[in-house]
Amino acid sequence: MSQAVGFGVASPMKLSTSASRHMSVKFNGLSRSFVCVSSQSESQDIEKSRSLSFSPLDNKTNAVRSSQSFLCNPVEKRGAVGDRIYAAGTVAYDTFSGTAAESQSNTAEEKIGVLLLNLGGPDTLNDVQPFLYNLFADPDIIRLPRLFRFLQRPLAQLISTLRAPKSKEGYASIGGGSPLRKITDEQAESLKLALEEKEVPVNVYVGMRYWYPFTEEAVEQIKKDKITKLVVLPLYPQFSISTTGSSVRVLQNMFREDPYLSRMPVSIIKSWYQREGYIQSMADLIEKELETFTNPDEVMIFFSAHGVPVSYVTDAGDPYKDQMEECIHLIMQELKRRGVANDHTLAYQVNCKTVFSYYSLEIHI
Ligand SMILES: C=CC1=C(C)c2cc3[nH]c(cc4nc(cc5[nH]c(cc1n2)c(C)c5CCC(=O)O)C(CCC(=O)O)=C4C)c(C)c3C=C
Ligand SMILES: [Fe+2]
């Protein structure tokens, strides 16, 4: 059976992990129940002439080691569920300058840092327009042809001003600001404790791309703390140019220019949507949510993903769409293994539809 069901969940309250909720939708006069699962991912710099990209030096671990050119191979190999990306002590490090042999990793006192990357969000309604300005001023979000690059900031000013009222409405409806900072801080604390329990003491930092605490602030703190090795963990399960790609470009620029940072061994975890723990926890969430329905078997599972411009995928090879669909396949496979055989569907949310052509609805019923 194949149907097109049209509703998007364009709430700004997307969490790095994911969230689920119920809804009932009338379709063709029939009322259907849904479990709505929001996943989050990202995109990457589309501009082919630019040198941002990743070289998956270690496909098995899926950790990206930085290289001088920082080239990204968008079509990465993916491990099966259950593959270990890395275990404590086996992280593959390199430096942004490519001089790992001389790096400070040989110092007697090793200090490991973990840098969590996220998008950031406005803390108050007054922050909405400047937050949107930062977002639209990012060439990984709005990509202008080289000749029109000088228009990036004026355009960001214009779009952020036009978009702010609608955006404010959304943030007002979830309490007057983004919950992302609080959630990310809690994740940082939990990660620190979990690693301490495994006798891997680390400092955990949070670096946001478009709002406080900015990635630049986190990097300054990393320097002050004299960290000797760094693991970069983007809190986006799937890789995209506009999310992990953009944040890593910021890091690349900072690290390249700084004598201390350019020699620091760094390991970047490019994506983790296929990790066993993630798939299991998504399946746990869905199972738990299904149990709250009177007739769980009749419920459709609705996956809602962020949209990315079509050109990111078709021209720049953004792996986001493929990774998202593989991720959902793995979650459904896990649910089936547990005896849950519900129908499911996937839709991509559309942000600022007038600016880009986005992947929109994709229905698999
Ligand atoms: C216009 C271009 C945008 C692209 C491309 C885009 C990709 C993208 N975004 C996320 C995750 C999040 N985006 C969030 C907010 C947000 N994103 C855009 C625009 C694009 N996103 C806007 C204009 C906004 C602001 C809210 C709004 O006005 O709709 C958030 C929420 C942050 C928060 O406040 O908590 C997240 C999360 C992904 C994963 C992605 C590409 C895959
Ligand atoms: Fe977004």
Task: Write a brief caption for the model.
Its EC number is 4.98.1.1. The protein has 365 residues and is an alpha/beta fold.
Feature tags:
Ferrochelatase, 365 residues, disordered C terminus, 5-stranded mixed β-sheet, plastid, alpha/beta, binds ligand L6N33NVT, Ferrochelatase_N, ferrochelatase activity, Rossmann fold, chloroplast
Bound molecules: the ligand C=CC1=C(C)c2cc3[nH]c(cc4nc(cc5[nH]c(cc1n2)c(C)c5CCC(=O)O)C(CCC(=O)O)=C4C)c(C)c3C=C, fe (ii) ion
> CATH topology of the domain at 112-268, what is it called?
Rossmann fold
Rounded to an integer, what's the Rg over CA atoms?
21 Å
CATH class assignment of the domain at 112-268: Alpha Beta
% residues in beta strands: 15-25%
Strand neighbour order, sheet with most strands:
1-2-8-9-10
What is the β-strand count? 10
Instruction: Report the order of strands and helices.
Output: EEEEHHHEHEHHEHEHHEE
Helix content: 25-40%
Low-confidence stretches: 1-20, 24-31, 40-90, 353-365
